[in-house]
TrEMBL record:
PANTHER family: BTB/POZ DOMAIN-CONTAINING PROTEIN YLR108C (PTHR31758), BTB_POZ DOMAIN-CONTAINING PROTEIN YLR108C (PTHR31758:SF2). It comes from Lodderomyces beijingensis. Gene3D superfamilies: Potassium Channel Kv1.1, Chain A. This is BTB domain-containing protein. Residues 26-122 form the BTB domain. It comes from the Eukaryota. It holds the Pfam family BTB_2.
Amino acid sequence: MSLTTLPIQTFDEYDPAVPVVLPHEKVYSIQVGYKLFRLSGLSLSSDSPSYFTKFFSHPENKEKVLFFDRSPQVFEKIYNHLQGYSINITNDYEFMHLWSDAFYFGLSGLRKVLTEQDYFASIGSESFKIPRALLQSKGNSPNYFTINAERLLSDNLQVIERKNMMRPPPQRPAVVTGRSSDLFRDLLEVLKGNPSVIKSEEHRLLLMKEARYYRFLELEQRMVSHKVCKGCIVLNLNHLARRGLSNPSPSDKSIERPMQYSRPYIEEPVRDLIFQVDSEEDPGTAVLFLNKRTSLATVVFRDKVFAKLVQVFKGLISGTIVDETSMTFFAGFGRSHTLINGREMKSSWVTDLIGENPAFPSEEERDEKRASKKRKMSDKVEGDVIEIFLKRSMWKLLMRGNLGRLEAVSIDGLTGLGQERIDFL
């Protein structure tokens, strides 16, 4: 029975037919470095045309020993490939050496196999084999490794062809310096669906930072700390992405509805958004002003909080006051849970202090607010404005068309920065 008629069950996409470029039964000799390899014409024809088939196709060469001053260890993999075996590559240097020699020998079939292999990279001091299947989902590709692999291989080809080199130059695989191999190992585990490797909130933030660096955008969103309750999704302001926002309120401003959110690249329903602002470490970045004279409550965000709000919301909403350093929202407190100086307040505490708070101030009131904002609070009549520094707060963004205001869900504040700080339980 000939080699080409063996009754072997194969995958549908695999074509066992091999063209007769060289006589299939004839054996040819190839010396690579210190080792002699003997291959049949069938094996050499299986990935053709190549340097081998072109050399042995000349009648005067068919009995010669073809010599290459290359690595026999690398050629072992090529030998297995030509014999029809799948090859296993274990590290980044082995991949680069094999790819270089596949180009050197003109083995287009092997080069195609290699471009479909897993990705390899050295991160920190450790070599990683990154399963290609893990990086195919929307949001995780293109990424650092897919872009780098395409650029590295194409650039090397261009150099070799442009300089007409006798053999490929020494090539190094992708090396990522200054990043943690331990964190990357944990990232791969989360990619595989094992979030139990996340040890703490600090560890989660580090992993999210690494995911952004490598452009694993879907993975980053998968790791975002969030809660889902009563049709709402609760996230920290720092984790909001602009592309996740949607405004269900009609443009004619006839109905007020909460801004909605769905984490980008994650298959989940759109829910009403509640975002949390943590400002305890930066006093003064989130301040609530209760104006007794106008019966208006406003929240002013500054510095890092302001910068993030601008990044996420600017251009999507009006009805806010924005200058170079701050953003001011009108705010409501109908059903909020409130702690002031560690004491729980009743639900009507804002109304009790300043009177009824209109949901949307008139244009005159907005103009007055803009003018009064330019004056220092210390210039106001004592007791006219109550200033509360927010340590931590949760808000809904209510939209009426493109007009936006905040509705408090939960706040923890101090009436003075000298007050003792109280942590959440």
